[in-house]
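Researcher: We're teaching a course module on how sequence relates to structure. For the next exercise, students receive a sequence and then see the predicted structure as tokens, so they can try to spot secondary structure elements on their own. Here is the exercise chain.
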Amino acid sequence: MTTETTPTEKYLEVQASDEFGELRRKLRNFVFPMTVAFFLWYALYVLLSAYARGFMSVKLVGNINVALLFGLLQFVSTFLIAWYYSRFAARQVDPIADKIRDELTAGAAARGTGTPAAARTEDTTEPGPEVAK
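Model: And here is the predicted structure for the students to work with:
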């Protein structure tokens, strides 16, 4: 009789761990408020475009009006959120995820399988002719 843990059991154990819970909590605490904020900002833009045409058509400089500025700010805010998320993930999320992955791969190595089955790949490429330089 063997007491070896299957990959499914190991992943369920990780999912129930405090570290994984912390990872999910940090991610949710960033993603949900940022998503709500962006949708509210977008809804404001759409509603103003639909119901405040006078305000949105105010010319600021030349032919540039408030609507065009708000439209361009949608792109700017999208890029800022993406940049902020990548920075947040690198500082807050990735270290926890790396630790969890390292524990999983270390456990698989201790069982003699090297890496979890899902992460293993076989090199099926045939050696090609060498290229002369």
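Model: If you want an answer key for the exercise: Helices lie at 7-15, 18-51, 53-56, 66-110. The two ends are 58 Å apart (CA to CA).
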